[in-house]
Specification:
Oligomer: single chain
Helix content: 25-40%
Number of helices: 5
């Protein structure tokens, strides 16, 4: 099964632009747009993949000051109980192979997009050590794309690993809704702050490093997880 995965991956990575619709690309689109989405929605308990609809986050932190000394330095916001909705609602819109960049492996560009995702969490506003207000907030991420490159050199054995992975995130707009009050001036202003924060290069760098480690440690070095995923997607094989 590991051999089958390696061959299937090489076929996928060398398939060329999606618009050409070769057999490998059709299979890849079916795998990503159907099977991966189903796994994200339903989870795969036998290999410890939880449902990602919604995805529960272990979030419990406090931030403040907001970079404005002497004005908000005693104001803090505490965030917890966060979930993300809409992760499975993605679309693979580009997959282009560049074999000249890695003659001994696979190298391709990709772009994945989401029309909308929403982060929901509880919040508390602390002023001078006292709880001033609390409630729930929805952070809507509008027109999000993650694009980058995937680079993997063929291993002499079946112990594959990624050489490099980049994931650059771009978000067109962020809307913050506090307790379903869309006209809140603070929420509108802070939504723009969140949008600017998520689009800085450091966020993409952290995302790239995290995904590279996850693919290598949790997938390419664990054949049983790959086998379970393939058995779920293509049980007849």
């Amino acid at each position: 099964m590991r051999t089958f995965f390696a061959l299937a991956f090489l076929a996928l990575a060398s398939a060329g632009p999606l618009k050409d619709e070769p057999t490998e690309v059709i299979a890849a689109k079916k795998f990503i747009n159907e099977c991966v989405k189903n796994v994200l929605i339903n989870g795969l308990p036998e290999i410890n993949i939880p449902s990602h609809e919604p995805l529960k986050l272990n979030v419990n932190f406090t931030y403040g000051n907001f970079g404005i000394p002497n004005i908000f330095e005693k104001f803090y916001i505490h965030i917890n109980n966060a979930v993300i909705e809409g992760i499975p609602e993605f679309e693979l819109i580009e997959l282009v192979s560049h074999p000249e960049n890695n003659p001994n492996g696979v190298f391709f560009d990709y772009t994945i997009s989401w029309k909308s995702m929403v982060i929901k969490n509880d919040w508390e506003l602390i002023v001078l050590g006292w709880k001033y207000a609390e409630g729930q907030q929805n952070i809507y991420l509008i027109d999000t794309t993650i694009s980058g490159t995937w680079n993997m050199t063929n291993a002499q054995s079946m112990q594959q690993s990624l050489d490099a992975l980049t994931a650059n995130i771009k978000i067109r707009d962020v809307e913050l809704v506090l307790d379903n009050t869309k006209r809140d001036i603070f929420a509108m202003s802070f939504g723009r702050v969140i949008n600017q924060a998520l689009n800085i290069p450091a966020v993409s760098e952290a995302l790239s490093a995290g995904l590279l480690n996850k693919f290598n440690v949790d997938w390419l070095q664990k054949g049983e997880r790959i086998d379970a995923m393939l058995n779920y997607c293509w049980p007849k094989y």
